[in-house]
């Protein structure tokens, strides 16, 4: 399957207070569970402005990492995905980089990620 960079639609409505998970494409491979290492492509967008702040697509290659080392929204939002799936996560600040003023440039922001799960390692 040839992957194409996702377009993230500008959000409408108010920012959620809980993690929102939307499957954009259901995968057909191994299902990710907490504690796995995953290989993903992703695009990250600021909910308030619709501006992209990061994307593995811009670097031309996916990234691999253990789920336990990521922001809580990813730790909670990726398990249950299957390889070859695409999922959108809308992550409020308390599940991302914390409240405004906590030191990270994305602190206090609600974030949208569109994630393509390419591989799961156990």
Automatic annotation (TrEMBL):
Tagged with keyword Isomerase: yes
Keyword annotations: Isomerase, Rotamase
Catalytic activity as recorded in UniProt: [protein]-peptidylproline (omega=180) = [protein]-peptidylproline (omega=0)
Sample GO molecular function, one term: peptidyl-prolyl cis-trans isomerase activity
Domain PPIase FKBP-type: 35-121
Any single Pfam family the record assigns to this protein: FKBP_C
InterPro entries, per database record: FKBP2/11 (IPR044609), PPIase_dom_sf (IPR046357), PPIase_FKBP_dom (IPR001179)
Known EC number: 5.2.1.8
Keyword Zinc-finger: no
Family to which this protein belongs: Belongs to the FKBP-type PPIase family.
Name of the featured protein: Peptidyl-prolyl cis-trans isomerase
Organism: Phytoactinopolyspora mesophila
